[in-house]
Amino acid sequence: MITLDGVSKSYERGQPAIDNISLHIDEGEFVFVVGNSGSGKSTLIKLLLKELEPTSGIIKVNGQTLSKMKRRKIPKYRRGVGVVFQDFRLLKDRNVYENVAFAQRVIEKPGRVIRKRVPEVLTLVGLAEKYRSLPRELSGGEQQRVALARALVNRPDILLADEPTGNLDPKTSTEIMKLLEEINARGTTVLVVTHNREIVNAMKKRVIRLRKGVIVSDEEKGIYHED
Ligand SMILES: Nc1ncnc2c1ncn2[C@@H]1O[C@H](COP(=O)(O)OP(=O)(O)OP(=O)(O)O)[C@@H](O)[C@H]1O
Q1: CATH classification of the domain holding 151
Q2: Probe ligand 1: pick from 8, 36, 41, 196, max atoms within 8 Å of CB?
Q3: Is there a domain that residue 227 lies in?
């Protein structure tokens, strides 16, 4: 599903942000990528979304080699990967329903599909009753649920989450993680970047740890070791 082969990424100055990483993530896996600030986690997400090009190495996602992808295919590729971020990134002046429906409108889904699919996915994240609320009327956890619904509405094979609980309290963070686990159980491959130790240790999933752009451990049912 996701394969990196000898991937490095250097910015203009300093050490490589990603330094000769090779890894494989199978279809249906749930993986945490952990590491201190500056270890390269966000760079990895950007490489997977083809927002950045690697300095060297090969990245394959869903059978496609990203470096060979035609420019005009990139938007479609990105829409096939669900993404959520720490800061939710919702449209402030649109309600919950519209925030989610928007992801379908941009790919020109017919109205009847949108009217069916949006309530379905809002039910999945537990927000069916708040479909008319604006983002500012929601708690942080609810806003992240909307972001998740938006990421899932087009049924992506892969969900990338960059520090999805970074702005949330511990209880809400656990709820969001349980939701990610459920999404994974329904077949989506999930990759979560975080430095939330408690969450990682509670979930007992595969844990890939980065330090200065290098994989220092990769464990099934892992824990987040002290650095
Ligand atoms: N646009 C950029 N230009 C130059 N250097 C960058 C750029 N983005 C990131 N870096 C550097 O690359 C390294 C890895 O950064 P990255 O953002 O991937 O780390 P991270 O693990 O996601 O950190 P955090 O947990 O703080 O988000 C850092 O040394 C950072 O300073």
Answers
A1: 3.40.50.300
A2: 41
A3: no
